[in-house]
Design a protein that fits this description.
Length: about 350
């Protein structure tokens, strides 16, 4: 009934090693090292390789790209001491002229001070138009001079001393300057670039007329004396400090130092406090120091901003303009900003 031999007879026996098929034991340990190549060396993994051009030598694996050259440090602009001393002297003379001109102003006698202001406005127009060079230079200069005459007339002849007439004059002068450049085909392309320069020149000219309005307010002449003296001292001390110790440099391209800016504002505030101790009511040393501080800081920062603007024009490749105009621009801009600051502080503090 049963065969005498097993059906497994004639088949190969199982080898001694593991049986084929899935193993029920633990899986083999993962391989940690890189797989060797045929020549026994390890194969390095990298990104996609670029196809080698005909005639180009093969790249060795140990070749490394050359390091990029370091950027050259920017050499700071040299501070010229004679120039700094000259600008300091100009700022001092300008401040003395404005302060003495304010003393000639009185009820019914505003014209002498108005003539002094008009002379400073002409210097402002000359310096700023030659330094900034708007597209229609003569047109902008003519409009600015007309705005100066209109602002001075409005400041003297207005029934009520206020800034509203000056605001109308500034808006009208700016509009005329822009329209005059739009009419000319040559300047129409650069009209966008000239908007900023036209606005600065017209507003700066009208800002000087604020001093005439301030002289018509009670205690306004004393406020002019305190604020303009503080501004003149701040500008002069800042430039003198730059001639002696122009450090730390605020920017390599600007020949100004932070020590001069800080020292100028501090000394200007101190001088205004001393003046306040000699003036009559409503002035006190504290009030005089406050309004003097605001005027001094405004003047010094405006002067510093002019230096940055000049450095920016030189870095942009624009040719330098008239030497005298470029260096008169800073002190004139400082006094132009200090004038409305003096008016505002007189209204707020006194």
């Amino acid at each position: 009934m049963f065969p005498s031999s097993s059906p497994e007879t004639g088949r190969d026996q199982w080898p001694d090693g593991p049986r084929p098929g899935p193993s029920r034991g633990q899986p083999p340990a993962p391989r940690t090292g890189p797989a060797p190549d045929d020549d026994g060396e390890r194969r390095e993994r990298g990104g996609p390789r670029r196809a080698r051009r005909p005639g180009e030598p093969a790249r060795r694996p140990d070749d490394e790209p050359d390091d990029e050259p370091d950027e050259e440090p920017i050499e700071p602009v040299e501070v010229r001491r004679p120039l700094a001393l000259t600008v300091a002297g100009f700022a001092a003379l300008l401040g003395v002229g404005l302060v003495l001109g304010a003393q000639t102003s009185g009820p019914g006698h505003r014209l002498p001070f108005a003539f002094v202001i008009f002379g400073v406005q002409l210097l402002f127009v000359l310096a700023w138009t030659m330094a900034m060079r708007p597209p229609a230079l003569l047109l902008v200069a003519a409009v600015s001079v007309g705005a100066a005459v209109a602002a001075d007339t409005a400041a003297v002849q207005a029934d009520v001393a206020g800034l509203a007439p000056l605001g109308y004059v500034a808006a009208g002068g700016f509009a005329l300057g822009v329209l005059g450049q739009l009419v000319r085909r040559v300047d129409r392309v650069r009209v966008t670039d000239s908007l900023g320069s036209t606005l600065l020149i017209v507003v700066g000219v009208v800002a000087f007329a604020t001093l005439i309005v301030l002289s018509r307010i009670p205690a306004g002449t004393q406020a002019i004396t305190v604020c303009l003296t503080a501004s003149a001292v701040a500008l002069t001390v800042a430039r003198l400090t730059d001639a002696v110790a122009p450090w730390p440099r605020l920017a390599p391209q600007v020949p100004r130092g932070a020590a001069g800016v800080v020292a100028g504002a501090m000394v200007g505030t101190l001088v205004s406090a001393l003046l306040g101790s000699y003036l009559v009511t409503p002035f006190t040393p504290t009030r005089a120091a406050i309004i003097g501080l605001v005027a001094a800081v405004a003047a010094v920062l405006a002067d510093l901003a002019v230096g940055y603007a000049e450095a920016g024009r030189l870095m942009a490749g624009e040719p330098p303009t008239m030497w005298v105009a470029r260096h008169m621009q800073g002190p004139l801009g400082g006094f132009a900003l200090a004038a409305p600051a003096a008016y505002a502080m007189c209204k707020l503090v006194l």
